[in-house]
């Protein structure tokens, strides 16, 4: 994992699809074998490049949804109407097909057990993850890594999804996770409903007095609203790290 944190020249690598399976109602989990993959840290992302026969290229960035302990690379890709890249990845690409991939990228929005190595468990600052929709992807890598490493750092996830059918990575969501549904809940739902607001953050997130390291990922409007609320609640802005995607609208 240490190699992934070292500044190095990024080159395009050959990634061969090993599997493609549904992850939710609108998202597929794509699994790749990547020749020459150097390893990554939870929270990093990759660039994917597709090249047409006429030479036209299209690139998109995707968070890595698998932990560094997994030798294969997992991406969660939503099939977006009118998209240039996602329809090919989710509908046309088959196991054995190859694409170009560059990474891992990013050293700001990362957390791993190595970051707390040598610190007694009782002195470790907790980690608070706040996700909107597909923004949960890097946090699934963090949660899976934490469990595989047996790391004692307290980690919580507050996760906003449209519906129960849109929840990603259910196999990794334990008692440290709070899911809230924003567009209706199924019969028998006992979890939260509604958007992530100040009241929900007070109830379910680590308090400012606990000095958590906070990571927020999701659509731009979601991230900016949550970050502002966290600061209003008394969280240290220097301890809040943000990862945005999409345009100015909020699909949540």
From TrEMBL:
Keywords: 2Fe-2S, Iron, Iron-sulfur, Metal-binding. Its cofactor is FAD. It comes from the Bacteria. Residues 10-111 form the FAD-binding FR-type domain. InterPro entries: Cbr1-like_FAD-bd_dom, FAD-bd_FR_type, FNR_nucleotide-bd, MRET, OxRdtase_FAD/NAD-bd, Riboflavin_synthase-like_b-brl. Gene3D superfamilies: Nucleotide-binding domain of ferredoxin-NADP reductase (FNR) module, Translation factors. Pfam families: FAD_binding_6, NAD_binding_1. GO terms for molecular function: 2 iron, 2 sulfur cluster binding; oxidoreductase activity. PANTHER family: NADH OXIDOREDUCTASE HCR, PROTEIN RFBI. This is Ferredoxin-NADP reductase. It comes from Geodermatophilus saharensis.
């Amino acid at each position: 994992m240490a190699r992934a944190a070292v500044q190095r020249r990024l080159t395009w690598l050959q990634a061969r699809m090993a599997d493609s399976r549904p992850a939710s109602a609108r998202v597929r989990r794509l699994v790749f074998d990547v020749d020459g993959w150097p390893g990554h840290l939870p929270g990093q992302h990759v660039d994917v490049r597709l090249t047409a026969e006429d030479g036209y290229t299209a690139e998109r960035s995707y968070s890595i949804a698998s932990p560094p302990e997994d030798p294969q690379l997992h991406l969660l890709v939503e099939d977006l109407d009118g998209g240039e890249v996602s329809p090919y990845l989710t509908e046309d690409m088959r196991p054995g097909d190859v694409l170009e991939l560059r990474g891992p990228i990013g050293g700001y929005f990362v957390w791993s057990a190595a970051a707390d190595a040598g610190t007694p468990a009782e002195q470790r600052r907790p980690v608070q993850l706040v996700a909107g929709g597909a923004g949960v992807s890097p946090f699934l890598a963090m949660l899976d890594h934490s469990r595989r490493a047996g790391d004692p750092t307290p980690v919580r996830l507050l996760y906003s999804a449209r519906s129960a059918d849109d929840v990603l990575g259910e196999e990794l969501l334990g008692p440290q996770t709070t899911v809230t549904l924003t567009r209706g809940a199924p019969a028998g739902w006992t979890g939260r409903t509604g958007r992530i607001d100040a009241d929900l953050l007070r109830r379910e997130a680590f308090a400012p007095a606990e000095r958590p390291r906070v990571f927020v990922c999701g659509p731009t409007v979601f991230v900016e609203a949550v970050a502002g609320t966290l600061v209003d609640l008394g969280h240290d802005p220097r301890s809040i790290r943000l990862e945005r995607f999409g345009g100015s609208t909020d699909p949540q």
